[in-house]
What we know:
The chain is 38% helix and 13% strand. The protein is of the alpha/beta class. It has a single domain (8-195, 227-235), classed as TIM Barrel (Alpha-Beta Barrel).
Amino acid sequence: MTNSLQATTTLHNGVKMPWFGLGVFKVQEGSEVIESVKVAIQHGYKSIDTAAIYRNEEGVGQGIRESGVPREELFITSKVWNSDQGYESTLQAFETSLNKLGLDYLDLYLIHWPGKTKYKETWKALEKLYKDGRVRAIGVSNFKIHHLEDLISSAEIKPMVNQVEFHPHLTQKELLAFCQREGIQLEAWSPLKQGELLSDPTINEIAAKYQKSAAQIILRWDLQNGVVTIPKSIKEQRIVENANIFDFELSVEDLEKIDGLNKNERVGSDPDTMVAGFNN
């Protein structure tokens, strides 16, 4: 399945998406984000995940250009922010993101948070962008099962991806099973729980057994659960190390030990109560 950094999962529309990528949440606009994107791509990463609210799309675009890797070999994701939800405003937000990135198209465009009332209108805009060939795949982020069911009930095109908080303290088993049944690829943000999990004794015990770092164990656990993962780092050594997870496999027993760490605990907002920046 996933035996290299270039390994891909096939989305339900046939588009191939890398299993592994670089997230740039909280990476500063300017040289910090330019360098981390450039370094990641030069070390073989193909997938970069940003969002309008991260305010670093320009730097991401510059990092892409400076990497020297042809655009068509890369997989670039961005997201529409809460205050831009709605049909026309989403189409506008997409153009803004594309201009900042300096790209002609996106590989994946996501609704960043469900909010309460506008995500169906927003989704119609994403369907239009998809049909017009402006984006190769469309999806959502932070959607729970009830949001997905509601969206799918009236959607023409089913979301291809759902990017959510996912890590050993929030294993999201029901959501993962639902997405797998529906052919929606689950993707993990904050896979290391913002570094909190790196000192977990169980994970470190497993890491010692495989002679890997705690981060590598968690990221491998993502992949073996069939979840795309996008850890963030700005250090070259860490960017390289995070991706060095294709030469070993966790045993079923170790996967279960990691599953056993679940506490249904979030480091980010709960999608049902997250209302920051919504105009609805």
